[in-house]
Amino acid sequence: MEVYGEGRWHQVPIRAGLNRCRKSCRLRWLNYLKPSIKRGEFSDDEVDLIIRLHKLLGNR
């Protein structure tokens, strides 16, 4: 991704030798592999925001 960017998903499976479609590669990057994804527990501020939004919006 660092070399070719995030916009050329049709080249990823070809260059990496993967047996996946470009959509599958894109979704895997966005949901699991992207370095900016925050993992771990929620901070206190995030928990407060979730609770406030749930009180405001409820289950949708």
Can you walk through the features of this model?
The chain is mainly α and 60 residues long. The protein contains three helices and no strands. It has helices at 12-16, 22-33, 44-57. The longest helix is centred in the C-terminal third of the chain and has 14 residues, at 44-57. The protein starts with 11 loop residues before the first helix and ends with a helix. 2% of the residues are buried. Residues 1-37 form the HTH myb-type domain. It comes from Linum tenue. GO terms for molecular function: DNA binding. This is HTH myb-type domain-containing protein.
Outline:
This protein is mostly helical and 60 residues long. The chain is 52% helix and 0% strand. The chain has helices at 12-16, 22-33, 44-57.
Distance from N terminus to C terminus (CA atoms, Å) equals: 35 Å
* Approximate shape: elongated
Q: Total strand count, please?
A: 0
What would you call the structural class? mainly alpha
| Structure annotation, total helices | 3
Instruction: Please estimate the helix content.
Output: 40-55%
Low-confidence stretches: none
- Would you list the SSEs in sequence order as H and E? HHH
Radius of gyration: 17 Å
- Average pLDDT level: 87
Largest sheet: none
Residue fraction in strands: under 5%
InterPro entries: Homeodomain-like_sf (IPR009057), Myb_dom (IPR017930), Myb_TF_plants (IPR015495), SANT/Myb (IPR001005)
Keywords: Activator, DNA-binding, Nucleus, Repeat, Transcription, Transcription regulation
Main location: nucleus
Organism: Linum tenue
